[in-house]
Fold ATP-dependent DNA helicase RecG.
Amino acid sequence: MELNESVKGLSGIGEKIFQTLQKIEISTLKDLVYHLPRAYKDFSHIKKIGEARFGETAFFEGKIVSQPTVKRPKRNLEITSFQIADGTGIAAVDIFNQFYIKNNLATGNTLYIYGRLEHRFGKVRIAVPELYFKKPEEAFQPVYPLTAGLTQNMMRKFIREALRVMEPVELYSSSFLRRYKLPGIKAALKEVHFPESAAHIEKARERIVFDELLIFNRMLTLLGDESRAQSCARINECSVQEFERSLPFELTNAQRRVMKEIMDDIEGDTVMNRLVQGDVGSGKTVIAFFAMYCMRKNGYQSVLMAPTEILARQHYETAVKLFPENEVICLTGAPNAKKKDEMRQKISDGSAMIIIGTHALLYGELSLKRPGLVITDEQHRFGVKQRAALLGGRDIHTLIMSATPIPRTLSLVLFGHTDISIVDELPPGRKEIKTYLIHRDKYDAMVGFIRRELSAGRQCYFVCPLIEEGEGMEAKAAKQMLEEIRKFYPGSKAALIHGKLKNAEKQEIMDDFSKGKIQILVSTTVIEVGINVPNATAMVIMNAERFGLAQLHQLRGRVGRGGFQSYCFLVSDHQEAYERLRVLVRSSDGFEIAEKDMQLRGCGDIIGTRQHGVSTLKAANLITDVELLTETKEILANMEKVYPKEYQMITEQAKRQLAGKLLEIALN
Ligand code: ADP
Ligand code: MG
């Protein structure tokens, strides 16, 4: 059978299943064999409870240490609960309605459990557990993305059958395959679905990812050719110096540099497509306003899209200080429909020059008289779609502001035809946060140090990974922490904030903390972005080894916001985590930290494992496959000469994909 034939020809696929498969975009044999496992259950390695990270899915082996108990909270729901132990820790397990399994559980039995280690409601548990009484035979089992009506077993069967009856198309000559050490496509497809070992999975995946990224890079070059041919708002006579005079502070060199880069873009005759990256607090907002200032001066309107209403509001307040108030519009601020219509009127007749709103509000709803620029602030998805909708196809300059630490090496490749500016300097007066690793031996000294900070009138944060002490876990619990803190610092007021509190309660505690009525805030990780208490100078993070570096960096960013020297204490007794944690001691550069995190941990946690919305990429992961991304980009650069046949094939594939998915490709 041919790759492009319908899967209906396969045994076991009738009309109903065919329709179900279409829901996950499988209609041809090609779609089916390229429907790759999103993961593999790794039965080849047994993980210890005490060594797994929270959130990690793994294969555990343990003995049942508590007599299973049964609860029936609803008529059709029966929950059987027990605990297993493996010498390094204890974990609770709940199973739902699996009657035959329940009857085989007894204290002392050995069990294998595939599931995700979590801490919830104060306990360590294995969530979504799959129980095995014997160790499974295969070392790896594929896990496919599914939809209702399909099972893993069905997918395995269909794919096995498809691979048997059809012949995949090899894009490359054997000399090309040898040159780049790639397995043939047929072998690769077989191994990716039915692997013999982890090494086989890796090789097979690499081949498939290689193809995807080569085509992807070709798509980017095709697109780049197009965007260069366009026309858009032409700007002249803008000056950074003049703009700076309207500001209450002096710009940093980094800010000036980025503004010049923006000016060069918009004064030329190409469309600006620029990503501005800078750590939280590096002063990106003023850069955005400079770009809007240039537009306004030349009679063009600008749109600023913020991720939340609070941020939109904040931008609005800054904007009215820099621009005539009647030219600034904040769409989220409209109290009623009439007012909103008025705003729309001002946007379409061109009297509003600076338009601010949330992504949701702006999406596809506006008609601008003379649009020049769209700025997306703190958006993780880069809004090609919004941009297109907003403009109805017109060309427009775009600026994306992001504090998400996308590692430099990655963004340079990923945003091949997007230019990047990096704000690598903080406004003056901010002192570097001194960061220390605290082992048990130093704990008392740290407690004493913080006492001195408190008596000098400062405030501090204690962050713990858990709410209550989990059985068998060493993690410091926030509640217990609070008790301890009250004993340590009887003269100070301490309060606990955690995710289970109501919003109003959280808000009240936060307000009290920011007014200084509370000196010590003990919390789980709910102290998110946006909390700004300049008087807080110490951040203590318990069990720091449990957090990712990028997350620790974000937490640390809560202090050092005023003129006082600030401190961050990473408390951990896990020597094996020290190498990783030392990155934070040495560096305060969010990008460097993200890059190190990626190297040390593999990937994943930085922007999420699957890249947002890159639907042309099924197998490739733009974070972890960054090397292949670079490699294929380089290969492509010389391919037309050296491998003209292959180049032709890749170009055809790229064009075909572009035609269908123009708006959804990587920059979305
Ligand atoms: P972010 O890059 O996180 O968006 P902001 O633009 O919100 O940062 O800036 C953080 C704070 O720093 C704001 O209060 C802003 O007014 C201030 N700021 C920005 N640039 C400077 C500067 N050059 N000098 C002093 N303060 C500045
Ligand atoms: Mg910002």
In short: The CA atoms of residues 67 and 107 lie 5 Å apart.
